[in-house]
Write a structure and sequence with these properties.
The structure holds three protein chains of three kinds. Chain A contains 13 helices and twelve strands. By secondary structure, chain A is an alpha/beta fold. In chain A, the strands form three sheets. In chain A, strands 1-7-6-5-4-2-3 form a seven-stranded mixed β-sheet, with helices on both faces. In chain A, strands 10-12-11 form a three-stranded antiparallel β-sheet, covered by helices on one side. In chain A, strands 8-9 form a two-stranded antiparallel sheet. In chain A, helix 5 runs parallel beside helix 10. Chain A is globular, with a radius of gyration of 26 Å. Chain B has twelve helices and 15 strands. In chain B, the strands form four sheets. A seven-stranded mixed β-sheet of chain B has the order 2-8-7-6-5-3-4, with helices on both faces. Chain B has a four-stranded antiparallel β-sheet with strand order 11-12-15-14. In chain B, about 60% of the residues are buried. By secondary structure, chain C is α+β, with helices and mostly antiparallel strands. In chain C, about 20% of the residues lie in helices and about 35% in strands. Chain C contains four helices and nine strands; from the N terminus they run βββαβββββααβα. In chain C, the strands form two sheets. Chain C has a six-stranded antiparallel β-sheet with strand order 1-2-3-9-8-5. A three-stranded antiparallel β-sheet of chain C has the order 4-6-7. The mean pLDDT of chain C is about 95. Classes of the chains: A alpha/beta, B alpha/beta, C alpha+beta. The interface between A and C is small, with 6 and 9 residues.
């Protein structure tokens, strides 16, 4: 075994524990197929009805007793970075505080222990909860219809583009309008979603100031264009200042405007997307509304829809009858003026996330939501102001929204790269910012502090950045290639992982 | 507001450092027409006491499964016992409040648990490789159909009449919107359809659920053989993952892609979501898998470590040529699944499955003894369909008035099929004891 | 034998009415460690500009476009088994496909080594 140069060889003997850093083998290396942390009663004796399909081979999966299970996962958890530990300035991801009240409420039996197919008259509180969340989101966005069911942001994009396709079909133009426009700075999900539905994606350029010019959009518009997908505020951290004019030219050309709402945390309670000409926009509850990221989900991506698209909303959807929310589950149950394009998921959507999001909204209140957006923007601009003397910004030093974008021009000739800064931040006790995204900016570093950070914690982060850059400018760039040295692992060999994929554990050959 | 750390003095000091006089200056690019002149008429900041009161009042209006007198509803979401340690562990800050593990040096916890999850899912399904999870079983099924289309370069899929109707609707929507073509066989409560006759040399995917929506166990082997003869792929679907503890794996029966719902392990009912989709396939198709994949490698000091790999399949790199648009998936639900599976172990899952099956057999026998009720399925796992005299939905409603959630009247999901209007799908798990069964039977005898 | 380069950094070397296609040494350097290549089936007909192959590093995937039209008559299976061969010899052992040229004049408009070198230097 190779050892870290700064670690005496003796410290790495045995299982590799060192102080509070405890190494943990794979479950399959410590567990046993007969070990269990669940005491189950003996199954009642019956004549089985499994026919010839009863499992004959034993199920070779390791188990652990409860104390061993606790140690296994607690040790592993300690190899993770988390919002609850320190600043998580991951641009485009809105890593804000996840209130624990949300978790408590989601676990109430009246929300957590109800079945999606119970008779609807046994779950009026669930429908009412959905109606309240929908109402909050429509009022905050200035839109009149909402589809709650999409399971994440990309699923929301799918919902929006499917509604657009359905609207084009209703107009008899689906065959003709096959192009979706998106800027090169778009999230990868935008072109991936459009392509999934058979649209051809064409790129619209950005102006030198980092925003989209309505004239450039107009030049790309034609009878073949179905929609534009635009993120606002955009992925460069800027508000698309000509967005109303863009929406106007898009609508004049008979196309629709899909807004990627990933960056809504900058403007919630400050700006109404509904007044910007948006036809569809998803809201990432796991970003803007504080539902936890959980190491990669679950998310939830409700979509608000304009009057032009509302009637195509998928099932299930809520409507009010005698002021009571009614759930329409099947296309065949749609009423007059309702033409659902289909269904995106079994059941209703991410109830657990909706409960958390409504709890967040009620806690903040409409005033708190607005204050949160303002603080998020304030924090990003504070980081910008305090780093702008050392770092370079692709579009000049000007106010940003809730995230600030730097490029790597200031690293020219130092031998250090954006990646080195990211890894050096790890040694300083921080999760890196988003790096190399958006693609339109060389060596991009996208910093989104969120409103959850105090001034003191921002100052500490800024100090860490200044120390790292100071070291680089003093000729210490090469040393950063070794970073991180103080994390549970050093840099990992991703080439090896991809060339010889090992995607599951297998017992060592005897 | 308790979640916002700044004092007013902090804000002023920061505005001064930025060099602007007010926060409005930072929002100058927002067009006047889109600004809120006054805030919408919504509640203002509230403390935990008020919020909790509000939300508890809503929750209190719902009949929870645990408060029902008897609860036998399944049909794609199942009420199981989840060990207390599962919920404790997934609420560890380091799991709950971390992002997707794009920085592997400080994400080994999430990555190793993903690797273990992939191993568990691949083993359970009898496949070579599994991904890190999808949104749920229904969207995983739609992704499997798209994957089969990419692999076979054909566009037609055939859906069994035993597929969950809402899974069918999800596939139908994707196929309709993405220029696929789909044949959905009529509902097949007792598994007598001849799906093999439908397979031709334009077929990309044949989608078969076993145990079926109606509970019937389906013989996948001959279907797999017919698929392979025609150059098509068999997509095997399950909604009850516990069944894999009692049944031969879909992989051993010849399935090419296996997808299913993982909710039963580790995840509460929560009115339908969030859940976790399971997806596994053969090695040869791994580059067409959607979603995240975690792989083993070494770090610069030679120690074993894990990274997200084969990422060129994914949207953040491949953009319009990605295998799927999926980004955020179901990480924490996958973790809950994996912890529960670890607590059970292979032998424990087998025992859990045996208990589920035994409870269902006892229930089926007891129901068959009730005059007027017919059990439709001969072989099943923990769920089966009964035929009742008269309208099933009305019967279920009459039982609900007695606090009994008897099962799913099929008409709820098949409202346009009058021939199914007297069917109820009933599931039993380890949580349904003798007394609960007797309450259901007694209730039925009263309302029939 | 004539070798020509495209602006997308493919190279094509003609041998009579056949030609070999690969990616330039500059292109492999830009991609970094190559981890996977996808090759077409032998017998496939390619128009000029069609996607002939895909080459992937850990963080990027690029299409390899056919610099000239023709029918695929051979593919380099050794780079499928060991993609690092493209890093070691992009313009030699790391070739991708061999085609039977449909229209040898296709390559006339492409750059020679010197022009390509200047093109790369300018970008």
């Amino acid at each position: 075994m190779l050892t870290r140069p700064d670690v005496p060889a003796t410290a790495m003997e045995g299982p590799g524990h060192r102080g509070l850093n405890l190494e943990e083998p794979l479950l399959f290396e410590v567990g046993h197929v007969d070990a269990t942390g669940v005491d189950l009663p003996k199954p009642p004796a019956v004549n089985d009805r499994l026919g010839k399909f009863a499992r004959k081979s034993s199920l070779d999966l390791a188990g652990l007793s409860e104390p061993e299970t606790m140690r296994h996962y607690v040790r592993l958890s300690r190899q993770n970075y988390a919002i609850d530990m320190n600043t998580y300035p991951l641009g485009s991801c809105t890593m804000k505080h996840n209130p624990r009240l949300n978790e408590k409420i989601a676990r109430l039996p009246g929300f957590g222990d109800i079945h999606p197919l119970q008779p609807l008259n046994t779950v009026p509180g669930a429908l009412e909860m959905m109606e309240q969340l929908g109402s909050w989101l429509m009022q905050l966005t200035g839109m009149n219809a909402i589809s709650l069911s999409p399971k994440a942001g990309a699923h929301g994009e799918l919902c929006g583009l499917m509604a657009i396709k359905a609207a084009l079909r209703a107009r008899g133009q689906a065959e003709q309008r096959t192009v979706v426009l998106a800027p090169a700075s778009a999230h990868g999900t935008n072109p991936a979603t459009a392509a999934l539905l058979g649209f051809k994606v064409e790129t619209i350029p950005a102006r030198p100031d980092g925003t989209v010019d309505p004239a450039d959009v107009k030049a790309k518009l034609g009878p073949e264009v179905a929609a534009i997908m635009l993120t606002n505020p955009n992925t460069c951290g800027l508000f698309e200042r000509d967005i109303v004019a863009i929406a106007e030219v898009v609508h004049a050309a008979g196309a629709y405007f899909y807004c990627d709402g990933a960056n809504l945390n900058a403007i919630l309670g400050r700006a109404k997307p509904g007044a910007l000409g948006v036809d569809a926009m998803h809201i990432n509850l796991h970003k803007t509304l504080s539902t936890p990221h959980g190491g990669g989900g679950p998310g939830s991506g409700p979509v608000v829809l304009s009057d032009a698209l509302a009637r195509f909303a998928p099932t299930p959807f809520l409507k009010l009858e005698d002021n009571r929310p009614i759930l329409v589950e099947d296309v065949s149950q749609a009423g007059i003026g309702e033409e659902p394009f289909g269904r995106l998921t079994a059941f209703h959507g991410q109830m657990g996330m909706w409960v958390r999001a409504l709890t967040y909204l009620l806690s903040h209140g409409v005033d708190g939501v607005r204050q949160a957006s303002e603080d998020a923007v304030l924090n990003a601009n504070y980081v910008r102001a305090r780093l702008s003397d050392l770092m370079t910004q692709p579009f000049g030093d000007k106010p940003c929204m809730h995230e600030v974008l730097f490029d790597d021009r200031f690293l020219e000739g130092t031998g250090a790269t954006t990646l080195d800064i990211a890894k050096a931040l790890i040694d300083e006790g921080y999760h890196p910012m988003t790096v190399y995204f958006p693609l339109v900016v060389h060596g991009a570093m996208l910093i989104e502090p969120t409103e959850s950070e105090s001034k003191e914690s921002l100052d500490l982060f800024i100090d860490a950045m200044r120390r790292i850059i100071g070291r680089i400018k003093d000729g210490g760039g090469a040393a950063l290639k070794e970073a991180p040295l103080h994390a549970p692992r050093r840099r990992l060999d991703e080439t090896r992982a991809a060339r010889e994929p090992k995607l599951r554990w297998k017992p060592a050959a005897a | 507001m308790r979640y916002l750390p700044h004092s007013e003095a902090d804000r002023q000091a920061m505005l001064a450092a930025i060099g602007v006089s007010s926060i409005d200056a930072l929002f100058a690019d927002v067009p006047a027409a889109a600004r809120f002149d006054q805030l919408p008429d919504l509640p203002m900041t509230q403390g935990e006491i008020e919020v909790e009161r509000h939300m508890k009042a809503l929750a209190g209006r719902n009949l929870s499964a645990e408060s029902a007198t008897a609860f036998f509803l399944g049909a794609g979401a199942y009420r199981h016992h989840v060990p207390a340690s599962v919920d404790h562990l997934i609420q560890r800050s380091e799991f709950l409040t971390s992002y997707t593990p794009y920085q592997p040096e400080i994400s080994q916890g999430t990555l190793q648990t993903l690797f273990e999850f992939q191993t568990q899912v691949a083993t359970l399904t009898g496949m070579d490789v599994a991904n890190g999870g999808m949104y749920d079983g229904s969207t995983a099924t739609a992704e499997a159909v798209l994957m089969a289309r990419r692999i076979t370069k054909r566009s037609k899929s055939i859906l069994s009449g035993g597929l969950h109707p809402q899974y069918r609707a999800v596939v139908e929507t994707i196929e309709d919107m993405s220029a696929g073509s789909m044949v959905a066989l009529p509902p097949d409560p007792n598994g007598t359809e001849d799906i093999i006759a439908q397979i031709d040399n334009e077929t990309a995917a044949v989608v078969v659920q076993s145990p079926s929506f109606y509970g019937q166990l389906i013989d996948l082997k001959p279907i797999a053989e017919a698929c392979h003869k025609a150059g098509a792929l068999l997509v095997a679907v399950f909604t009850e993952v516990v069944s894999l503890g009692a049944l031969e794996s879909p992989g051993s029966q010849g399935a090419d892609i296996v997808v299913g719902e993982g909710q039963s392990l580790g995840n509460p009912l929560t009115f339908g979501g969030p859940y976790v989709g399971l997806m596994a396939t053969r090695n040869e198709f791994v580059r067409q898998l959607p979603g995240r994949l975690c792989g083993e490698t070494v770090d610069a000091a030679g120690r074993r470590g894990f990274v997200l790999t084969l990422a060129t399949r994914e949207q953040h790199i491949r953009r319009d040529k990605a295998t799927s648009n999926i980004c955020t998936s179901s990480g924490l639900c996958a973790l809950a699944f994996s912890i529960h599976m670890t607590l059970l172990g292979g032998t424990g899952l087998t025992r859990l499955a045996a208990t589920n099956h035994a409870r269902a057999v006892q229930l089926a026998d007891a129901l068959a003894a009730v005059p007027g009720i017919e059990v439709v399925n001969d072989i099943f796992f923990n769920e089966f369909t009964i035929r009742v005299p008269g309208d099933a939905a009305a019967l279920v409603n009459r039982l609900t008035e007695r606090g009994i959630v008897a099962g799913l009247p099929v008409s709820r999901l098949e409202p346009t099929r009058p021939e199914l209007a007297n069917l109820i799908i009933i599931a039993a798990t380890e949580l349904n004891g003798d007394a609960e069964r007797e309450r259901l039977i007694a209730g039925l005898r009263k309302v029939l | 034998m004539t070798t020509r380069y495209t602006k997308d950094s493919e190279w094509i070397r003609t041998e009579g009415d056949e030609a070999v296609i690969g990616i330039s040494d500059y292109a492999q350097g830009q991609l970094g460690d190559i981890v996977f290549v996808e090759l077409p089936e032998v017998g496939k007909t390619l128009a000029k500009g069609d996607v002939a192959a895909v080459v992937e590093s850990v963080k990027a995937a690029s299409e390899v476009y056919a610099p000239a039209a023709g029918e695929v008559i051979a593919v380099n299976t050794s780079i499928k088994d060991d993609p690092s061969a493209v890093n070691r010899g992009a313009e030699g052992d790391g070739w991708f496909v061999r085609i039977k040229l449909k229209n040898p004049a296709d390559i006339d408009s492409l750059m020679d080594a010197e022009a390509y070198g200047a093109f790369v230097a300018a970008h």
